């Protein structure tokens, strides 16, 4: 029996595992320290590719290092640019995209994801999804600006046409503080 509910990051990885196959193209919209990029690189295998974005050189460097240590470098393209420009870097269909929002752990807490660019990137990501593809957002709302970003994302996702997308919100209701939650958007057609 499973000990407890999966936390937000564990749940996001379960969703990735269920939706990504060897050979797929996928996006990590917020590379950060590279943990999601590494996980995706393992899932897509030698014939797939992860397109990983971050606006901070430090994040791209850390992600590059993590991939190198795990001999996964060939499976990822690291892009030092905003995820709002995803469409300038790929037009092929993807099976999944993940956003891990907020600030870089161990980095500058002033550099955070912002709703305007996050929603622009989210719109572009769902356009790239193939049938049954998924976009997953791990949302942190405890920092300044986080609550606003969360609310705008929930408003946007709630308004998506249910005939085209299924939207899931995975949230702990009785934990102290502001635990992260997972918003997942699955393309149905
Ligand atoms: C919570 S961290 C990501 C953690 C990462 N997924 C991991 O596994 O370590 C959020 C990252 O988003 C990046 N970021 C902020 N705005 C961005 C944007 N417009 N485009 C791409 N990345 C952005 C930050 O630089 C930061 O590294």
From TrEMBL:
<protein>
    <submittedName>
        <fullName>Putative rRNA methylase</fullName>
    </submittedName>
</protein>
<dbReference type="InterPro" id="IPR010719">
    <property type="entry name" value="MnmM_MeTrfase"/>
</dbReference>
<dbReference type="GO" id="GO:0008168">
    <property type="term" value="F:methyltransferase activity"/>
</dbReference>
<keyword id="KW-0808">Transferase</keyword>
<dbReference type="InterPro" id="IPR029063">
    <property type="entry name" value="SAM-dependent_MTases_sf"/>
</dbReference>
<dbReference type="GO" id="GO:0032259">
    <property type="term" value="P:methylation"/>
</dbReference>
<dbReference type="Pfam" id="PF06962">
    <property type="entry name" value="rRNA_methylase"/>
</dbReference>
<keyword id="KW-0489">Methyltransferase</keyword>
């Amino acid at each position: 029996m499973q000990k407890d509910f999966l936390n937000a990051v564990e749940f996001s990885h379960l969703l990735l595992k269920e939706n990504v196959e060897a050979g797929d193209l996928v996006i990590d919209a917020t590379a950060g320290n590279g943990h999601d990029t590494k996980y995706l690189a393992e899932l897509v295998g030698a014939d797939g590719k992860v397109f990983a974005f971050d606006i901070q050189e430090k994040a791209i460097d850390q992600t590059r290092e993590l991939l190198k240590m795990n001999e996964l470098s060939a499976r990822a393209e690291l892009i030092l640019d905003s995820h709002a420009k995803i469409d300038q870097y790929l037009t092929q269909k993807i099976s999944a995209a993940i956003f891990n929002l907020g600030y870089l752990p161990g980095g500058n807490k002033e550099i955070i994801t912002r709703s305007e660019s996050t929603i622009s990137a989210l719109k572009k990501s769902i356009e790239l999804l193939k049938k049954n593809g998924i976009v997953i957002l791990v949302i942190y709302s405890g920092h300044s600006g986080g609550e606003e970003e969360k609310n705008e994302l929930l408003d946007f996702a709630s308004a998506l046409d249910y005939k085209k997308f299924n939207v899931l919100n995975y949230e702990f209701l009785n934990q102290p503080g502001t635990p992260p939650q997972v918003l997942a958007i699955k393309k149905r057609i």
